């Protein structure tokens, strides 16, 4: 494998000679992580006295906000020495973090093992394999004491693989730090400091607490930080149950939350029912030409509520963690929606 240096390079580099002085050339795919665009909603905010701006994390090279944490977790582990050159990265995830790790691992010369659930989509399996990750199946329903449990499988692989490293996205402070150093400052700069409210859906909590903390620090506490929560998740006040918004919510007991989630940063958590989430996803595509994932629909549904309640002239920024192409056979499939009881 070829390895590239992850130290910041001040990309994009200024091209010279035959490339032409007006072109921008990035020195590797890793330099494409972050600096995602923000777009204003126009149709869905008609009649509101406040603005809703959406940060399009699907524009990262692996297609989600998780590229940021993959890059920062690997960079930090390399710098501290816990991840040696050529060391294997092991993570239990069926989601975007696996794709981010597979992509950055490929670039940095680290083999990547992804422990996944049996119902991983064919698309995700293909993407992970294309980046050269090794895939190992585990039972997502299995109790932590069961050897088939995903974390047990990942721990076993790590124990059997010399020089391996568990990235542990739910416990690794390089996850929220990526958003403190990247996502938060970008929002502040892109809105010229006018952001008044920040909304992100909560999975590991890295995005909402990392970017939220930066925005609190830089605004002397003025920016309101709101977590978006799906029905069935114990991050909100409702009952624990089935969660059908990918990548977000918690099935842990109500008094437990991961180390990457700093609840003290949040001013509020709002829960939105699945019908409103998927209706927002549909309207974003139909009325704003924004094809986004369900957790984006969740955050934007909350952002619209916040914009409705806030003082006129407020500037509400919502995170869209990934794009809709990953969900063509789910959120955008009428049969899947009907089967989920969200047909009309
Ligand atoms: N949406 C999607 C699709 C995700 O994969 C994740 C991460 N699990 C999130 C939202 C939530 O982000 P965070 O882990 O930073 O809370």
Automatic annotation (TrEMBL):
What Pfam family does this protein match (any one)?
PALP
| Gene3D superfamilies registered for this protein in UniProt | 3.40.50.1100
- Keyword check for Ribonucleoprotein, yes or no: no
Q: Where is the Tryptophan synthase beta chain-like PALP domain?
A: 32-322
Q: What's the superkingdom here?
A: Bacteria
Q: Does the keyword Ribosomal protein apply?
A: no
Annotated spans, Disordered: 1-21
Co-factor(s):
pyridoxal 5'-phosphate
GO BP field: cysteine metabolic process; serine family amino acid metabolic process; sulfur compound biosynthetic process
Q: For this UniProt record, give its keywords in alphabetical order, as a comma-separated list.
A: Pyridoxal phosphate
State which residue ranges cross the membrane.
none
Q: Which family does it belong to?
A: Belongs to the cysteine synthase/cystathionine beta-synthase family.
The protein's name is Tryptophan synthase beta chain-like PALP domain-containing protein
Q: What is the lineage of its organism?
A: Bacteria, Bacillati, Actinomycetota, Actinomycetes, Micrococcales
């Amino acid at each position: 494998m070829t390895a590239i240096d992850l130290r910041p390079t001040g990309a994009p580099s200024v091209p010279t000679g035959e490339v032409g002085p007006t072109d921008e050339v990035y020195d590797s795919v890793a330099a494409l992580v972050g600096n995602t665009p923000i777009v204003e909603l126009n149709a869905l905010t008609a009649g509101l006295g406040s603005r809703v701006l959406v940060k399009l994390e699907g524009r990262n090279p692996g297609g989600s906000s998780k590229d940021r944490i993959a890059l920062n977790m690997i960079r930090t582990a390399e710098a501290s020495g816990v991840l040696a050159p050529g060391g294997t990265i092991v993570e239990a995830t069926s989601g975007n973090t696996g794709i981010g790790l597979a992509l950055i691992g490929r670039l940095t010369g680290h083999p990547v093992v992804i422990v996944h659930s049996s119902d991983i989509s064919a698309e995700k399996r293909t993407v992970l394999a294309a980046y050269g990750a090794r895939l190992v199946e585990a039972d997502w329903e299995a109790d932590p004491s069961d050897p088939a449990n995903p974390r047990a499988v990942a721990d076993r692989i790590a124990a059997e693989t010399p020089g391996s490293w568990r990235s542990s996205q739910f416990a690794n402070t390089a996850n929220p730090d990526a958003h403190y150093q990247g996502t938060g400052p970008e929002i502040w700069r892109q809105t010229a400091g006018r952001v008044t409210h920040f909304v992100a859906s909560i999975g590991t909590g890295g995005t909402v607490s990392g970017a939220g903390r930066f925005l609190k620090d830089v605004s002397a506490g003025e920016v309101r930080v709101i977590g978006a929560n799906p029905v069935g998740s114990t991050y909100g006040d409702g009952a624990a149950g089935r969660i059908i918004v990918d990548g977000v919510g918690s099935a842990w007991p109500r008094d437990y939350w991961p180390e990457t989630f700093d609840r003290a940063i949040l001013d509020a958590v709002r829960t939105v029912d699945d019908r409103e989430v998927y209706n927002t996803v549909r309207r974003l595509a139909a009325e704003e030409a924004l094809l986004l994932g369900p957790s984006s629909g969740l955050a934007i549904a909350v952002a619209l509520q916040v914009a409705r309640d806030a003082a006129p002239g407020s500037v509400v920024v919502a995170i869209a963690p990934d794009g809709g192409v990953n969900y063509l056979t789910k959120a955008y499939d009428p049969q899947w929606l009907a089967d989920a009881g969200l047909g009309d």
